[in-house]
Known about the structure:
The protein is built from seven helices and ten strands. The chain is of the alpha+beta class. It folds into two domains: about 25-40 and about 135-240, Nuclear Transport Factor 2, Chain: A, CATH 3.10.450; about 45-135, Arc Repressor Mutant, subunit A, CATH 1.10.10. Strands 3-2-5-4 form a four-stranded mixed beta sheet. The chain is elongated.
Amino acid sequence: MNLLKMLLVLAVCLTFSAYASDELTQADASAIISNVLNKDCKPVSIGNALISPDQDPRLPRGADPDDYPGWWMFSDPEDEFGLHRILEKAGIFEIEERPSSLGENWREVTVRLSPKGKDLVEQWGLPRRENVFCIKRGNLKITNIGRNELHQKGLDNYRVLMGTGDWEFTEEMEFVTNEVRLALMKAGMTVPETDLRSSKFIVLLKHDPFRGEWRFVTADMAQVDEEFQSNRVLEYLQKR
């Protein structure tokens, strides 16, 4: 009888442990979300580029594409190339501009990282991509998690987390944001009144039963007063 009781107790404990490993507290959820989304950054191309006033720039007839391997093209330089100019003003980029042999409507530019830009790459420790600089957004402080739901798909357990957070922008992102607002005002355009620091998110996590931990899968983000422009979480779950 004692042996039977011990086996029953053991079975209950094992069942509870398996269930508990799938749980996720609000504090742990906040830590996972912040850790992942704090790596969020905006990629900006660096290297060689061609600038043309054409709306859909293409190499002129007779030009050899092999002469421009890895180059990218911009239309409307005041708009498309504006972020590069802002980052040059911030001391992150060094931009060399010159006439192009393609004609007077074309210009060639070379965008390099300044010493400050190289220091930021090391300081932020973000994943490096060739010919791309990523502006780190900042640090996200989770203010609320309104939904923390378990979704079971076959043998896999997922959690959908929905909530809000406030960004503490990096100095560089703050500079970019202010410059963009000024540019919009100078162009006579309406400047949004929404606070870009306030965001909402939908995050999908998947439970790893072997390591007993939740792992990030994908996410959707938007400013708190705007609609989501992507449905990555829902699309991922629908495919499972």
